[in-house]
């Protein structure tokens, strides 16, 4: 009795890559005053928020997750970066530092996951309510 074995090979990749960088914008010397920092941790979580891998930025602020299985992930950047007694936050949002990434056979590479941090814009705005009593408002 002869047994036939059928193998199916997919034509697409079975592993993917996630690459990006982290920079801070100091604005000390103008809008293009951008600095890359070495040694910042970037974490890769699976769809169940379980740890998969982590990488640290190189001298250019770059990180990479190579040979990563094709599925859904969350890339977690630092919530904030403390540099020279200043606190830098993600520029895209004050609270968004986690980003979903899907690696599929059609899209096995994500090479442009860049995160920029900036100084939080704070200030005091004073005004008075429009009523009979003058009350100071701070925001």
What does this molecule look like?
- The protein has about 140 residues and is mostly beta strands.
- It has a single domain, classed as Immunoglobulins (Immunoglobulin-like, Sandwich).
- It is built from no helices and 12 strands.
- It has strands at about 15-25, 35, 40-45, 50-55, 60-70, 70-75, 80-85, 85-90, 100, 110-120, 125-130, 135-139.
- Strands 1, 2, 5, 7, 8 and 10 form a 6-stranded mixed sheet that branches. It has a 4-stranded antiparallel sheet with strand order 4-3-6-9, with no helix packed on it. A two-stranded antiparallel sheet has the order 11-12.
- A hairpin with a 2-residue loop joins strand 7 and strand 8.
- Mean pLDDT is about 80; it is low at about 5-10 and about 125-139.
Count of discrete domains: 1
Quickly give the structural class. Answer: mainly beta
State the helical fraction.
under 10%
Radius of gyration: 23 Å
Number of helices: 0
Order of helices and strands: EEEEEEEEEEEE
What kind of sheet is the major sheet?
Answer: 6 strands, mixed
Terminal CA distance reads 83 Å
Apparent shape: elongated
Estimate the mean pLDDT confidence: 79
The CATH class = Mainly Beta
- What is the number of strand segments? 12
CATH topology: Immunoglobulin-like
Specify the CATH homologous superfamily: Immunoglobulins
- Give the percentage of residues in beta strands: over 45%
Assign the CATH architecture.
Sandwich
């Amino acid at each position: 009795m002869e047994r036939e074995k059928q193998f199916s090979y997919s034509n697409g990749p079975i592993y993917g890559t996630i690459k990006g960088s982290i920079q801070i914008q100091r604005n000390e010397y103008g809008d293009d005053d951008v600095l890359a920092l070495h040694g910042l941790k970037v974490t890769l979580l699976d769809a169940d928020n379980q740890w998969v891998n982590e990488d640290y930025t190189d001298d250019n602020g770059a990180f990479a997750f190579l040979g990563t299985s094709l599925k859904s992930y969350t890339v977690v950047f630092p919530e904030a970066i403390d540099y020279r007694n200043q606190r830098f936050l993600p520029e895209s949002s004050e609270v968004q530092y986690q980003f979903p990434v899907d690696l599929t056979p059609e899209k096995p590479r994500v090479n442009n996951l860049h995160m920029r941090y900036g100084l939080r814009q704070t200030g005091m705005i004073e005004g008075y309510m429009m009523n009979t009593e003058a009350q100071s408002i701070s925001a």
